[in-house]
């Protein structure tokens, strides 16, 4: 996966065993339930693995996050 990441410039990998998302660029796991751009991929993988939609947890932003352009749970 690392070689593919470097050759094709894909920095994310989804593990089908536990549906975790690894970022090669930042060298850490990403939370697919918090990062909205990852949710559709995570949801599709979850449905393919378990046959039903995932139980997404609610995400709340602090006031500091709202000032930086984050959406509050009331906005969603």
From TrEMBL:
PROSITE patterns: ZF_UBP. The keyword Zinc-finger applies. Pfam families: zf-UBP. The keyword Metal-binding applies. Residues 1-51 form the UBP-type domain. It comes from the Eukaryota. Keywords: Metal-binding, Zinc, Zinc-finger. This is UBP-type domain-containing protein.
């Amino acid at each position: 996966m690392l070689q593919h990441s470097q050759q094709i410039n894909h920095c994310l990998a989804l593990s089908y065993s536990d549906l975790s998302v690894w970022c090669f660029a930042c060298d850490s796991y990403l939370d697919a339930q918090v990062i909205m751009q990852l949710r559709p991929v995570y949801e599709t993988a979850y449905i393919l693995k378990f046959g039903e939609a995932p139980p997404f947890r609610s995400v709340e932003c602090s006031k500091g996050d709202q000032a930086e352009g984050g959406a509050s749970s009331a906005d969603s």
